[in-house]
Design a protein that fits this description.
21% of the residues lie in helices and 18% in strands. The chain has ten helices and 13 strands. Strands 1-2-3-11-8-13-6-5-4 form a nine-stranded antiparallel β-sheet. The chain has a four-stranded antiparallel β-sheet with strand order 7-12-9-10, covered by helices on one side. Helix 3 packs across helix 7. The longest helix is centred in the middle third of the chain and has 13 residues. The radius of gyration is 20 Å and the shape is globular. The two termini are 33 Å apart. It binds N-oxalylglycine and manganese (II) ion (MN).
Length: 379
């Protein structure tokens, strides 16, 4: 058999890093036969159907955020990863486009924070969508054109804005969390058995075909008993879910457009990474198929044809991942530390340290900052 990811594992080594490099490799491309594909729906000894709470969300509430009735969701758990749940595209036909538009056009607006703010003046990053649409809707001319802002976008933060340098959130750097995304998140988490989830911080990652996200644990939130929610749109990715130590070999799975992950309980603090973007088998998203009867009271507006032309072109080559986090437990507040007074201007001085996800190119030159990126937690 060809080199399988599992044969890379050696005792006492950083097994996660080896498997990360295995899936990231371009030449020759890796063998993908070990990668779990939940969209195929097969259950076995590793993949088991997950139990949901259909009564926690009414069909009308679900439809308002673009979700199928909970009883129709295909939800799975993974043997050996208690608290991990994978929901294979629970969105209604045609309801991903409004969320894609939110990620590209709405959430990129001020007061939200993005990687471009570190390099550019506020007026230059004020309207990323508006400054990109013209170039993105014209067919590429022969000459190599400068990348649009949308193409240079790597991350956006919402709510409590994550400080990449101090790896903390703080009460002093907060802007209102988008109500529509809050509503989507609370319905999904409620259906997974977590009533009362409060979406307080969001990180959107924008991946080009050669981007990756380094090995890390999300531990900056103060209450780890609350789940972490992850939503993906556009191109597919290989997601690696490891253990509490980097010596634990990770499990590889595909994340396709519309897929949702919930990391809770023991799985809330596991190492994970995205070594590779893979082109989506099919990306059929017809925004017009979102039944207009469902749009009464919808949390998100339908997408105009004009906007969809830009969004659909963008996701033909890119992936967007949204993670939603509850930072504080009920009644909890931030501890008073010097870093809670840090502003974004302070953070901006650590330039070049914010490439998340890292691009393939820079990864080659600066392996340490791409494979073990920004948020890598060493053990
Ligand atoms: C994160 C994360 C995974 C992904 O943002 O912390 O792990 O699929 N994202 O992009
Ligand atoms: Mn993460």
């Amino acid at each position: 058999m060809a080199k399988m990811a599992t044969s890379m594992v050696q005792n006492g080594e950083d097994a996660f890093r080896n498997i990360f490099k295995f899936y990231k490799r371009r030449n020759p491309p890796p063998d993908f036969s070990d990668v779990i594909d939940f969209s195929k729906g097969a259950v076995g000894d590793r993949i088991v159907p997950a139990v949901l709470k259909p009564s926690a969300v009414s069909d009308v509430e679900a439809a308002r955020v673009g979700l199928q009735p909970v009883r129709d969701w295909r939800a799975f758990s993974l043997q050996g990863y208690p608290g991990f749940m994978f929901i294979s595209n629970p969105f209604l036909q045609g309801s991903q486009p409004p969320w894609v538009r939110q990620c590209l056009k709405t959430y990129t607006q001020k007061p939200n924070v993005c990687n471009l703010d570190m390099h550019m003046s506020p007026s230059d990053t004020e309207d990323i969508w508006g400054k990109s649409v013209h170039a993105l809707s014209c067919p590429p001319s022969g000459k190599r054109e400068a990348k649009t802002l949308l193409e240079r976008l790597r991350w956006v933060t919402l709510g409590y804005h994550y400080n990449w340098d101090t790896k903390t959130y703080s009460s002093s750097h907060y802007t209102p969390f988008p109500a529509d995304l809050h509503s989507l998140s609370s319905h999904i988490t409620a259906a997974c058995g977590f009533p009362g989830f409060t979406a307080e911080a969001g990180i959107l990652n924008y991946y080009r075909p050669d981007s990756s996200l380094g090995i890390h644990v999300d531990e900056s939130e103060l209450d780890h008993s609350r789940p972490l929610l992850s939503l993906s749109f556009g191109q597919s990715a290989i997601f690696l879910l490891g253990g509490l130590n980097r010596q634990d070999p990770p499990t590889a799975m595909y994340m396709h457009s519309g897929d949702v992950m919930v990391m809770s309980g023991q799985s809330r603090l596991l190492y994970h990474a995205v070594p590779r973007i893979v082109s989506a088998p099919t990306l059929e998203m017809d925004p017009s198929s979102w039944s207009s009867s469902l749009q009464d009271g919808a949390a998100v507006e339908p997408v105009s044809e004009e906007d969809w032309a830009v969004c659909s072109r963008y996701i033909q080559s890119s992936r967007v991942n949204v993670t939603v986090r509850q930072v504080l437990g009920p009644g909890q507040s931030f501890p008073e530390t010097p870093s809670s007074h840090q502003t974004r201007t302070d953070a901006g001085q650590m330039d070049g340290y914010h490439e998340r996800p890292a691009d393939g190119d820079s990864g080659k030159r600066k392996r340490s900052s791409s494979v073990d990126s920004v948020d890598t937690v060493e053990t």
